[in-house]
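Customer escalation, tier 2.

The customer says the design service returned an amino acid string that "doesn't look like it belongs to this structure." They asked us to rerun it and document both sides in this ticket. The original structure tokens are below, unchanged.
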């Protein structure tokens, strides 16, 4: 019998509310893998990769595409905006990155149409004070259509006659819903024609990625699963309803790509040295204005795509403990350690109190989470620059203490430390599981 488990298949997931630095981490790891595959979400993601003074922001296309010769998959669990995908392809082309023959789009992925974006905006404005703060990319409405079994998939784009019929049917139904719910008639004139125009550019990418990926694993080719969003934005396990509409956790890789759970050989969780969140919803360790402002400025905490200022807070160990459990994290990556280089005192939330008593589980109700009183422990800052460090021993003692504190509290190794946005501002401690995956 073959030992399929030996084929390297590692999942990279956000352990917080997104924007943990997954793009940088995936780019770093991707050179050691044959494939990188996205399993959930769409162009609500913004994954930043910086090397040779060049900045790339990938939204749907896996970050591994930036590594010459490596292959990339956009899986069945994703939602694909054709205009956005074309824009991303054009940007890569402008940067001299050729994707033909190494980028594959699943025929089972669902398509985001402009009417999904319209519905996203209309739903947000109808929510008023309770708005989620979505990226207005039409992500939620596209997943709603998928669950309602009226979505249009990539495979439906290929037969143009059938596509026309399906679009007519869906648009009629969506117009009734939109008019009744929001008093808004959708703008769909010319949609069929403009869709066909884009399809001509992307049809060469379309394959059955499920077969491609499983065959690749059978042949011993390694795969890196690129998570989008973060654990606390997961539709089932996050701070519902202030979440995205897909499974961001590591399990999403199996449903979103069609690979069995037994195939995954490792899970990497990514966390910042602190916490950020974009959009609304509870955030127990949110810093007060002055502190948040300082971290936002030093960490350049503005949305990679939307430019929205990110809310900033202290590191939240209950969130990371929850993320470790949900994802089965084997190795933790801590990014943006350098943002604390000037900090004199660092607070870490070690537990939650609700109505005066310590609680051990992540509350399901956001009303409870909003009233959490974080229990903090203060650690001394190092007040020395870290971006030049290339080994753990180059880091100031207080920085190593901070990392050890996190590792001890969570009982998980720290497999990578990032001290700057560039590829080389990265430390991989020797002897870790993560080091063995390189
Ligand atoms: P992602 O969505 O998880 O890929 O993260 P984003 O790209 O949205 O946001 C992370 C931001 O932090 C990007 O601007 C990165 O260039 C930047 N970044 C990543 N790692 C580090 C780091 O260690 N230090 C600093 N200062 N910036 C980093
Ligand atoms: P990456 O992959 C941070 C947030 C939005 C909003 C909520 C729902 O870059 O980490 P949606 O448009 O998905 O319906 O919005 O989820 N959100 C993200 N926040 N990083 C992301 O992706 C996000 N993708 C969605 O801000 O609060
Ligand atoms: Mg991002």
């Amino acid at each position: 019998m073959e030992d399929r488990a030996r084929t390297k298949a590692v999942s990279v997931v956000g352990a917080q509310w997104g924007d943990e630095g997954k793009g940088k981490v995936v780019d770093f790891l991707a050179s050691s893998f044959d494939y990188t595959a996205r399993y959930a979400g769409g162009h609500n993601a913004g994954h930043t990769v910086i090397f040779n003074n060049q900045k790339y922001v990938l939204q749907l296309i896996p970050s591994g595409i930036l590594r010459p010769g490596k292959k990339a998959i956009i899986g069945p669990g994703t939602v694909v905006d054709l205009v956005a995908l074309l824009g991303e392809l054009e940007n890569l082309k402008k940067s001299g990155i050729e994707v033909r023959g190494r980028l594959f789009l699943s025929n089972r992925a669902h398509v985001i149409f402009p009417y999904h974006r319209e519905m996203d905006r209309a739903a947000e404005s109808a929510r008023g004070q309770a708005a989620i703060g979505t990226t207005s990319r039409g992500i939620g409405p596209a997943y709603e259509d998928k669950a309602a079994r009226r979505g249009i998939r990539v495979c439906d784009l290929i037969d143009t006659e059938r596509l026309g019929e399906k679009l007519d049917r869906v648009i009629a139904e969506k117009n009734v819903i939109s008019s009744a719910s929001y008093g808004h008639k959708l703008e769909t004139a010319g949609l069929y024609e403009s869709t066909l125009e884009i399809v001509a550019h992307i049809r060469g990418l379309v394959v059955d990625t499920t077969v491609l990926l499983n065959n690749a694993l059978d042949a011993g080719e390694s795969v890196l699963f690129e998570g989008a969003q973060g654990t606390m934005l997961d539709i089932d396990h996050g701070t519902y309803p202030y979440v995205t509409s897909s499974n961001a956790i590591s399990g999403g890789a199996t449903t979103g790509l069609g690979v069995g759970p037994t195939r995954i050989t490792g899970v990497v969780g990514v966390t910042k040295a602190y916490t950020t969140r974009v959009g609304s919803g509870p955030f127990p360790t949110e810093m007060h204005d002055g502190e948040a402002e300082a971290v936002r400025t030093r960490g350049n905490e503005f949305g990679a795509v939307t430019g929205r200022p990110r809310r900033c807070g202290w590191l939240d160990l209950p969130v990371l403990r929850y993320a470790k459990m949900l994802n089965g994290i084997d190795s933790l990556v801590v990014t943006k350690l350098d943002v604390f280089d000037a900090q004199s005192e660092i607070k870490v939330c070690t537990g939650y109190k609700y109505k005066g008593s310590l609680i051990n589980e992540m509350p399901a109700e956001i009303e409870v989470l909003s009233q959490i009183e974080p229990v903090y422990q203060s650690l001394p800052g190092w007040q020395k620059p870290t971006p030049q460090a290339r080994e753990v021993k180059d880091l100031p003692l207080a920085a190593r203490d901070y990392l050890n504190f996190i590792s001890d509290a969570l009982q998980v190794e720290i497999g990578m430390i990032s001290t700057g946005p560039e590829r080389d501002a990265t430390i991989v401690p020797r002897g870790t599981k993560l080091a063995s995956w390189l």
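Tier 2 assessment: The sequence is consistent with the input. The chain has a mean pLDDT of 96. The first helix runs from residue 22 to 30. Sent an explanation to the customer and offered a walkthrough call.
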